[in-house]
Design a protein that fits this description.
CATH architecture of the largest domain: Alpha-Beta Barrel
Helix content: 25-40%
CATH class of the largest domain: Alpha Beta
Number of helices: 24
Largest sheet: 8 strands, parallel, barrel
Shape: globular
Strand content: 15-25%
Radius of gyration: 34 Å
Length: 943
Amino acid sequence: MTSSVLPSARSSHHAGAFVLCAALLGIATVLGLERSQDRPRSSPPSPAGADYDEAVRLYVVGHFQEALEAINRASAADGWSAALRALAGWCHLRAGALAAAEAEFRAALKLDAGAVDPHVGLGYVLLRRGSSTEAEDQFRFALRREASNLDAQKGLGLALRDQKKYSDATQVFRDALRLKPGDAEAEGLLQQALAAGDGGREERPRGPATGTAIRVVAQARDGRFFVREGGRFRPLFVKGVNMGVALPGRFPAEFPPDEATYRSFLSAIAGMGANAVRLYTLLPPSFYAALRRHNDAARSAPLWLLQGIWTEPPAGDDYDGDVFVREFRGEIRRVIDAVHGNLDLEARPGHASGMYRADISPHVLGYILGREWEPLSVRTYDGWFAKGHRESFAGAYFTARLEDGATPFEQWLARTMDFAVECETGNYRQQRPISFVNWPTLDPLRHPTESTAPEEGAFLRAMGEEETAEMIEEYGECEDCVGVDAARIVPTPDARGGIFATYHAYPYYPDFMNLDPGYSRARDSKGPSNFIGYLRDLKTHHGAQPVLIGETGVPSSRGIAHLQPQGWNHGGHTERAQGEIDARLMMDIDEAGLAGGVLFALLDEWFKRNWMVFDFEVPGERKPLWLNVLDPEENYGLLAARPGATSWKVKVDGRAEDWNGVAPLVTRPEGGPERPFKDGYDRARTLRGLAVGDGAPDWGKVAYLIGIDTYDARRGDHRLPITDKAVSPAGLEFCLVLDGAATSRLLVDTPYDLQTKRHHRPYGSVENADGRFMEIKVETNRRRVGRDGTVYPAQQSSRSQLIHGSMDRRDRDSSTLTDWAARTDSNTIEIRLGWGLLNVTDPSSRSVLSDDPDNLKNVGCTRTAGFRFYAAAIKPEGAAGGRTPIEARLADRLPPGDLAQPSDLPMYAWRGWDEPTYHIEKKEGWNILKRAFEALPAHREAP
């Protein structure tokens, strides 16, 4: 969540009230509850007498009117003093009477111009009035007379904050904490000022650690991680979860600010049996406070942290550029300081900030530098040194030697890791393992089935495919053109934490995972597994260097982006199947002898965009507002971020009662084969409910069509896809064909199909009346040519087939991918369709796909008024699942009668939204993974 500036006293009284609740309660001591002999002379003398003491007591408990009555009695007896006037001012201020409070504080100053308390009180009055500059003068006067006055210190910080002098305000609040360490109010104000600041200033409250002993928290050696337990090192098999924490409606740098959210996530992860969490970047202080609390409460089973340190690639691929090196090393230093609870960090765009005080370093398993490096960037950097003189790198903690084959990029990584270990060793006298992100694209292995773009282009030209060769070379795919090898970075004896290799490895990509003959023959303890074949190769290459699979998993999306031989595809899994496959992947990591694995990811993240759908999610800035079930990247979570509130009532299970209270779009009052048609939506799908005739459908004798006009009634097909005459007054972009549990499908009008138009823009619906609708297909695996000339055909996946089942977990055909359900006992058909299936580019703004022919630089969209529907019952005369137009006769339709105008068809216009509703819950695979994690070893002795 983006940092926000606290409301100023001018615009809101809430912030001031928050401060005064604590600051004013503390004034009772200043006003006479403590009569210390060495009390500063600047405070007005406390009057004696029972009435004054009673006034102070009433003020402290919040009875301000009664306190004022006691003050008046005291003044009647002994006359007015500066102390009485000041106390009266505080009573009025706490009661919200600013004018009366100001009058009393100014009266007190006439009696004693040097008194501190009236200046402080007047400063708070001025803050409430929005006069922050004048308030600053009052607080500074008070502090010159009494430097230890905590209320004046906090008031000065607020005055500076309201003037947007955030850096100065943070320093003042730090001074307040020096006066009273641990003061909760001062800590809260410091956090808010840091979040509001925009200068990116940072401070380390503690200096470098003293002493010579170095504490080694964990080690990476002998193929395993080792952690301290009971005074000795024991091996740890990592069973981890990656923590992406972007909630629906938020981009990745808009972090949840509250500790409670992180504590709930950590509790769930630990409850599943995991022993580690991984972060990609520095999170807000609330995360580290939550982790500290969690581990304090679970001493025997802590969650270990794998802390990432993020960077983007440098401009011009210059990894030695002064600006890039300075910024990346600065981030390394900040992250190390933060995990040691020793960082105050002002707000920076796109980054976390705040006051880091939770020292979680005892449970930081290791650091992982960087991101998935781009192969072309690495190749460019390495290429600069191809003809120049290079020397081996020999640092205090790591070496990367030319005689071992170290590349320039590997030497840069060694230098960077050397800096990180030196930073933590020098400042905190601690060490732990360190790594950098790698992935199969940059692994050090050679894959015979994965040719480079020039290699593939040469084969294609030899095959006479010049145009395809040019396209392949222009795209410049580089899945096996360069490697980065952690084995060539060697720790010195002083690097006692060691180094480990980290790979993001999924079972379905790159294609060499699917095509390599050796991987195709590989088996784990349960059967064929290309994945374990690849893992064994990594293990063999790295030997004793521990290998961590830092990302792996499959998503529970409806859409599929890549196919895999064992069916462990990039999408297309039910939540139960997702859990089973993820459990198998973790088992393979263990069986291959690796150091552990980290599942991707904790939470479904709506902001993500996969290559297959990226161009068709516009406007892009609104993507976090809705869940695209066709996008695998959004659906990796072990926790589901489901659209709608938990009270959302419609569940696609074929039961009609869900629709009670939902007004039908259209009905047939006189009865007949077609009865009410109802509609609805959520942030992921549009919903349909159709009541049909009594009895179980005989799909050989009856079928149902639902034509859908998504925009512009003139465009689209004005004929239903049957041979009988079935004219539609509104052009239809899509048509649902319900003709059996295994054959029902969604078809698209041919001109509006994306696969056939991908190289023939513009995208858009075209007016026609041919009744030809087609299957919706996507090419998931492109055709490839291996390094030996072997041609591997392309593979496609159909989005058209509708999955029949039930969303009710109690039903035998329960499936989280259910598209439609039909029940004979309710005579009801229910359907839900992902927005993306209907070429909706953003349901939150009712945007649908439609290019501007004069501007094809970006995919275009237009706002729809809503969807129109045309339902029909037909009598098929051929086999189900055939071509269109379908050989069939029209039996009935809804709306009935002759339809002459588009307005004769019912329209459903849903409301857009700017803030999504959602709820988070465990997916159906959660317990499967819990059992799998519990079965994996917590400690596995090194082989």
